[in-house]
Amino acid sequence: MISIQVNSDGSIIEAELSGEVTSADYSSKLVPAIETALADNDAVRLLVIVTPEFKGYDLGAAWSDTKLGLSHWRGFDRLAVVADQGWVQTSVRLAAPILPCPVHIFSLEELEEARRWIRESLGAIHVRDLGGPCVQVSLMGKVDSAEYAQAQTDLDALLHEREGFRLLIDLREFDGWQGLTAMASHFRLAAGHIGMLDRAAIVGDKAWQKMAQRMASHVLGTRTQYFPSDEYENAKSWLASG
After folding, report:
1. Model confidence, pTM
2. Which domains does the chain carry?
């Protein structure tokens, strides 16, 4: 069976699995909870608690699980699985790389830690005015799609009534995106401001970031330059010069 609990704004769902889970459990409990949550939220976070009494799925439930994932592929922002069974943990680890959201596995004694992880933001985006035409966008930690909504608001407010700007992208503390949805949000944010961008500097230490600068110079159609982390001040000077 499946027991469901939903937080006050509907964005976090806890599903506790026990005994044998059937297709009826999905159709009467889990699917309605997720669809109701998605009616009011762009994405939901799902915490699955697998009790020691869990015996597995019947065939109908296994198919329902597959259909649920496919029909709401982009509807999940984060997934936590709390389980002590080795076969459950292994199954989740095998599926995690192809899922469009971050996935974390916890033991049952780590349940409260799992609840904190499912609630908290693992990353942040900070937008600040560097003076003149220059703006800095700093990505920190593992950024999720919700952070981009606020970044969009902050950047639009900063660029209001400006005809153009120069952008410093600070990746010194950036650990990546929380799934494909967050990555897509990143490119949507960039695409919405390409016409205003005069030049861009990227500061970081990872090889892929230097490669991203080269690609960005072609995609953005403007001057871009990569700087290692210890040349942060040089990046600001380059951005402001000329």
Report:
1. 0.53
2. 2-119 (3.30.750.24), 123-240 (3.30.750.24)
